[in-house]
Write a structure and sequence with these properties.
Layout (H helix, E strand, L loop, with lengths): L2 E6 L2 E6 L9 H16 L5 E6 L24 H9 L5 E5 L2 E3 L1 H8 L2 E5 L3 E3 L13 H9 L1 H10 L3 E2 H4 L10 E3 L3 H11 L19 H15 L5 H14 L2 H16 L2 H15 L18 E4 L3 H12 L4 E4 L3 H20 L5 H9 L1 E4 L10 E4 L5 H14 L5 E4 L6 H5 L8 E6 L8 E5 L6 H13 L3 E5 L7 H17 L4 H11 L5 H8 L1 H14 L8 H7 L12 E2 L8 E2 L1 H14 L8 H22 L5 H11 L9 H8 L1 H12 L13 H8 L6
Length: about 700
């Protein structure tokens, strides 16, 4: 059932019923329109109430129908709103819980609106790179006022109904109630059943005392804050149309703006992100109803930067945490850092004192593994060396209770090998947090060959509880993110060999939209980490070619910000990256030693070589089953590696350019004598998709 119809006395009540948020899909729209017509035809009915079943009035469009013919099938949302608005009998919206997007636009088409306090109200389309397309930009300014409406539409953020009801002169809500909103709306509908003419939001005036100056000020503000996103300014112009144009002309301008935005790569990227976030938690062979293990107490081994950050995630979620260290001084330092982080939040007004105190009471420390015996989940965050991991997991195996989940925060090591150090490999999983762990959204959940399905389902649920974007990876060196970034870093090194400076590469990548270029990133993470990996690669994969420039840098002791010198120079206490004459001289000597001739390289070539290196390696990961889907790869890079959101991730970006064009560029790069020609051999999946005219996403 998509909508219910019942009559209470003289009031017809139409209830949207399309779980989970009463999305306005084709069947629901049809059922509501039919309900209005039925009420019109019944002489015993004098007024109508439209409401939503369950935990929402309506969350707007039905995401299951995005991009399908059903999304536009008649009655589309505009047609449904017209049916409601032109009903000859009063229609009252009984709004509760969630009223967003098309749901709010439908409510604005009703003659009256009664809302329950606490209802979250929003027009969030801007977050998908769009503007409200069913009258939201025209009716909300008329009902609420130009400035508060523009703020809501441009930000897309929800506001509680009772706050909106306090806006002077607002006509958005006729009544706010704490009690049952449907009962209140039915009573209200009875009271207004004889009132005529019926009030229509479209007939109100959207006025501003100094509209021209206000909108110019707003353009400057919005343009400066949304330079990579076209939707906010389009939203602003549509709202300006509500003031400057007749209603029908404003509606046409809104539809034109909506259609234009729908075709932009930014909107495509944001819509891709919207769906990618939702599908990342789904695991093909793990049923959604898999019973979860209880996680009531967490243990963390290691009180360093990662261990402390990991602990904060669970403390924030209200879960008790016990941190284990080998020495009391290390514990004291770790706890002091956690306190410092929380105190900084309190100082900025982001955390209340009582919440800070509450979180610290959930934290306990120990020097003994025995104190972890009651933990349901234990995460190790110790030194990234397999011998150290072995010692930890053997001790955990001895003390952890049956059914406890044992997780490793390893970023590259073999989770299956780590699991083999225990007699319970089914309980072992990788939980790779990204630094700083209390800030970064990404959590790579590494599935070992024997990891139990309920362990996997539980860890994914835990990720959601601690507000992480959890993405499943299979076991391989570096998992999804770090395995890909190695190819990106290799290509960055080849660019130096060919004449680029570190700052030229970084600037090109940052102009493209990355939060940080590869060389600034290396200085931040520590160049000695990459050096250790290359030494390991020299033994394990002797045929893998790297630029030797990074080794020459490390031989000079330039490990990055922690030593005050890396690819850049750094002044004490500052993070500003200053181009280094020492590095410039080192690179000149390096190029001379390898017989490289310096050439001019465009920003476009720099960006495409780095990004296509990511894309090609990701295609290998998909082929091998390490990553479940291309959108998972995008989520890893959007939430963990600073890939620009408005480009949708490396796979979405490749699709936007066209995979045929990506492969043609790779063929051109392979002709470069200084590069590793084999590097640009298209992965089998990529070659197959091009041959079939298909895309990743």
């Amino acid at each position: 059932m998509t909508a219910h119809y019942e009559v209470r006395g003289s009031v017809a009540v139409i209830t949207l019923d399309n779980p989970p948020v009463n999305g306005l899909g084709f069947a629901t729209r049809s059922a509501v329109a039919a309900g209005v017509e039925r009420a019109e035809a019944d002489p015993a009915v004098t007024s109508l109430v439209i409401t939503g079943a369950g935990k929402a009035f309506s969350g707007g469009a039905d995401i299951k129908e995005f991009g399908s013919p059903k999304a536009l099938a008649e009655p589309n949302l505009l047609s449904l709103i017209s049916v409601v608005e032109n009903c000859s009998k009063p229609v009252v919206a009984a709004i509760h819980s969630v009223c967003m997007g098309g749901g709010l636009e439908l409510a604005l088409g009703c003659h009256y609106r009664v809302a329950q306090s606490g209802t979250k109200v929003a027009l969030p389309e801007v977050k998908l790179g769009l503007l409200p397309g069913a009258g939201g930009t025209q009716r909300l300014p008329r009902a609420l006022g130009v400035e508060p409406a523009l703020n809501m539409i441009v930000s897309g953020e929800p506001v509680e109904a009772q706050m909106l009801a306090m806006v002077p002169g607002q006509k958005l809500f006729d009544k706010i109630v704490d009690a049952d909103v449907v009962d209140a709306a039915v009573k209200f509908a009875e009271e207004v059943s004889e009132k005529r003419p019926l009030p229509k939001v479209r007939e109100l005036k959207a006025r501003h005392p100094n509209a021209e100056a206000y909108f110019q000020f707003a353009r400057n503000m919005v343009g400066g804050m949304s330079k990579n996103f076209p939707a906010p300014l389009r939203c602003l112009e549509a709202v300006a149309g509500a003031v400057n144009l007749k209603f029908d002309d404003g509606m046409r301008a809104e539809r034109e703006g909506f259609a234009a935005l729908m075709l932009t790569p930014e909107s495509k990227a944001l819509r891709h992100l919207f769906f990618a976030e939702r599908v990342a938690s789904k695991i093909s062979d793990v049923p959604e109803d898999t019973p979860l293990r209880t996680i009531a107490k967490v243990g963390v081994i290691g009180a360093g930067t990662m261990g402390g950050g990991i602990s904060m995630n669970f403390l924030n979620a209200g879960l008790p945490v016990t941190i284990l260290e080998t020495k009391q001084e290390a514990l004291d330092r770790g706890v002091a850092t956690i306190k410092k982080n929380y105190e900084a939040q309190v100082k900025k007004g982001k955390l209340k004192e009582d919440k800070y105190a509450q979180r610290m009471t959930l934290l306990s420390t120990t020097l003994s593994y025995d104190d972890l015996k009651d933990c349901d989940l234990i995460i190790e965050a110790v030194f990234e060396e397999i011998g150290v991991k072995e010692a930890v997991f053997k001790q955990l195996d001895a003390v952890a209770k049956p059914g406890a989940i044992l997780a490793s925060n390893t970023s590259t090591l073999d989770v299956d090998k780590i699991a083999s150090f225990t007699k319970r490999p089914q309980d072992v999983v990788g939980m790779h947090f990204f630094s700083p762990a209390n800030v970064m959204k990404l959590l790579e959940v590494v599935r070992g060959k024997e990891t139990a399905k309920d362990v996997l389902a539980t860890v994914m649920a835990v990720g959601k509880k601690i507000k992480k974007t959890a993405v499943v990876s299979g076991v391989c060196d570096g998992f999804i993110g770090n395995r890909m970034i190695e190819q990106y870093s290799r290509q960055a090194g080849f660019l130096l060999d060919e004449g680029c400076s570190p700052q030229q590469v970084d600037k090109a990548v940052e102009k493209f939209g990355f939060a940080m270029g590869p060389f600034r990133m290396g200085d931040l993470a520590g160049n000695d980490i990459g050096w250790a990996i290359r030494k390991r690669r020299a033994v394990e994969r002797a045929n893998m070619k790297y630029s030797a420039s990074a080794d020459r840098l490390c031989e000079l002791g330039r490990f990055g910000q922690k030593t005050g010198a890396g690819w850049y120079d750094y002044q004490p206490g500052k993070r500003d990256a200053i181009p280094s004459p020492v590095v410039e001289e080192m690179l000149a000597k390096h190029r001379e030693a390898i017989g490289a001739k310096k050439r001019d390289i465009s920003d476009e070539e720099i960006v495409h070589r780095l990004v296509f290196a990511l894309v090609n390696e990701a295609a290998h990961l998909l082929e091998e089953g390490i990553a479940q889907r291309a959108s998972d790869v995008d989520m890893v890079y959007l939430t963990g590696y600073g890939f620009p959101i408005w480009r949708g991730g490396p796979m979405c970006y490749a699709d936007t350019l066209g995979l045929f064009n990506v492969v043609q560029a790779m063929k051109r790069f392979a002709k470069n004598p200084m590069d590793d020609g084999a590097f640009w051999t298209p992965a089998p999946l990529l070659a197959r998709l091009v041959a079939e005219g298909k895309s990743f996403t």
